[in-house]
């Protein structure tokens, strides 16, 4: 059934956009790709059918996108783009329902249920009857810091505007209806973004080339069928930006209001846009009255929020650097590895004067939000798909990317994005990462080769050497690429060489062994803290060994320092010699270890219980 | 005057070759030939004037790193190369004769020359001349390239008279000239399929059935027992054994349906059991054997020298403790029935 629906969708997509010879030629090649896929299917005999179907569908979508970008007889408009997106997103919804909704999603849905069934925001009875909830999450408990009313009412920390928006969808079809509502906002986001590009004078050819990388690639594709305020927020942001640029109050005012109502943090964006709107237009008395009314309504809601203005007070400079480079480069949560195309939008900053006015205005609006986000410990989004907090700016980065598109070579980013999209649709649960400094591909390679590949990916959650090198490299890249253009023919071979050297380095033992990582062979013991610990990234994690448990890993010969915690003296066996480590109490301590050879080392716990954090080679 | 773009393409080729050489993949002969595959990819990208096609090089390296299973890895090499090749072909505005010839030669190199151990320059040169002729006759179209690659795939050049195959294809190219510009999707599909299987091109050309139905016997209890005509032998069946693996030696030229002997009550014929090495490139054309239905052979080489041994799986009666085999005395003296192994 799914396959028939997919085939029908792939017939509909070209009918929307192509005409004449382009359409006929596309259909001829479309049939050829089905034949090719069929033969491959028979030859490869895939064990995971679902994976194969999704991979073929995404690759066909990529092929469609190539023709969309380069075809001669193409009909194109924002509405056609929205229609294409609507068809694709209809297939994304079921992929995200393979596992129960996660992160903040079930809490938003609980609020929707409360509004629909009880006409209030008190979630006590929702928590009491989780078995009948459409969240399918009987394990839910109120989140840390959720407000409690005078009479014991249990409220959610989340703003109720998103649940209100999802009410129609929820009433019609329950959870799929709520997800479809978000997908509808994603369709509107696509339409608005294309209109924004048109407004800013970006030519059709560029828009058609970049549209799939925006609409069908991470991070937007990760959020189009998830009950998170990011996609509706992005839509309202674009509409507000367009409204301010067009000086149309009836567009920007409701959009700004909706943006702030969705999430209070978006207020930092709204303040700048409001200022810009006021600067450009002498407000009439009626306008001022409307603005004041909206501001009062928002202020009332703000007082109910769990957030405080104190969160905006500047923190230490190193935390700003960590968050900033993390958003750009982190293996698990940064643009480079999770949405590389949008780095082009960042590079557009180096050609500020050539960028469209909407980009410059949007960047100014984004600045207070980014400055307040990056020093926070949860800059990476916490328990959510990657890039959560900056999804709202993806239309902005698209505008920036469009400005320098013709200077760029996008093929590697596009191919990587195809892989990410397939991964995100097949394994939606893997989009939620425990933020322990690893990322899915690093952990996967570590498991294959039993060597620490994760250390090759920059991590700003658990800052590693790759993070420092990466930060220096991107600063140099920013400066150099402003003046030097690397020939497109050399980009892919240079990536190939980098891959090979990284592969060689990955198979060698690292200087730091993190005992919870995937490359360590764990025989017994358990992860500490456990996976679902709230804000787990704030803890100094590790692997707990009890008597008889062991860990095995590749290590370098020579002096190392074992970082650990234990309550009583613990005897360890390392390479046939015993080591008794003293208790550390409630903190972590270190013990010297001298390894006689480079290679696979086993640490066995002879008696007691110990939390092994990491081992540093000296 | 040096063309800067040409220098950049050459630099891309050198860097790609170096990257794959440095990787040092050596699990199969195709892995060992990866630098040459990368070089061909760069040549194809240059022909198609598409830098995007060069992304095939890091993808090849990615496949080498991430797929430890030989079959998955080699198929993924094939898919990457095929998509790159077809992408480059579709990227060109006009398929001029030099370009079409370049594509045909690059495809031939992938199908025939990668990972070759036995190489006859004269025979290959003769075939290459005919391949270029096919491209020229077929009006430099995708169909011409597809026909050229079909000729490259299905011409073993041993014996030399098999050069009649490309000559026949040349005639087809001439006859289909009016259609040549209308069949680009079909031609591209054909090219993609052949190139996807370039690591198995020898097997695709001679025993394609194996690629779909072949199931190499893995959990084997080896016997390696040779039985001459007229000989009878009883074997103890190991516990849990389900099949016995048989093949012939010096049986490549026996007529089909010739009685070979008996396995218990079952009569064995040529066709059910075949010569162990019949699928070798130098044997295949002369051999009367064809890949049997229950092939249990292993892939013995890759690329155009690739072949599958002729081991065949026969089911044992359920619960059998012993099994009797005899060889028909009327078989030629040099023919041997090889009882290779039991399979659990």
Structure, explained:
Chain A starts with a helix and ends with a strand. Chain A is α+β, with helices and mostly antiparallel strands and 618 residues long. In chain A, helix 9 packs antiparallel against helix 19 and helix 13 packs antiparallel against helix 18. Chain A contains 23 helices and eleven strands. In chain A, the strands form two sheets. In chain A, strands 1, 3, 4, 6, 9 and 11 form a six-stranded antiparallel β-sheet that branches. Chain A has a five-stranded antiparallel β-sheet with strand order 2-5-10-7-8, with no helix packed on it. Chain B has a four-stranded antiparallel β-sheet with strand order 1-8-3-6, with no helix packed on it. Chain B has a four-stranded antiparallel β-sheet with strand order 2-7-4-5, with no helix packed on it. Chain B is of the alpha+beta class. In chain B, 46% of the residues lie in helices and 14% in strands. Chain B has two domains: 207 residues, no CATH class; 130 residues, Sandwich (Jelly Rolls). In chain B, helix 3 packs parallel to helix 5 and helix 5 runs antiparallel to helix 10. The chains are: A alpha+beta (618), B alpha+beta (344). Chains A and B meet through helix 2, helix 20, helix 21 and helix 23 of A and helix 1, helix 3, helix 4, helix 5 and helix 10 of B.
In short:
Chain A is of the alpha+beta class and 618 residues long. Chain A is built from 23 helices and eleven strands.
Structural class of chain B: alpha+beta
What percent of residues of chain B adopt helix (DSSP H or I)?
A: 40-55%
Rg calc of chain B: 23 Å
Q: Runs of chain B with pLDDT <50, length 5+?
A: none
Describe the largest sheet of chain A.
6 strands, antiparallel
Gross geometry of chain A: globular
Query: Could you give the count of β-strands of chain A?
Result: 11
Quaternary arrangement of the chains shown? heterodimer
Strand order within the widest beta sheet of chain B:
1-8-3-6
User: Average pLDDT of chain B, to the nearest integer?
Assistant: 93
Uncertain stretches of chain A: none
Quickly give the structural class of chain A.
alpha+beta
Largest sheet of chain B: 4 strands, antiparallel
Measured on Cα atoms, how large is the radius of gyration of chain A?
26 Å
Give a count of the beta strands of chain B, DSSP E runs of length 2 or more: 8
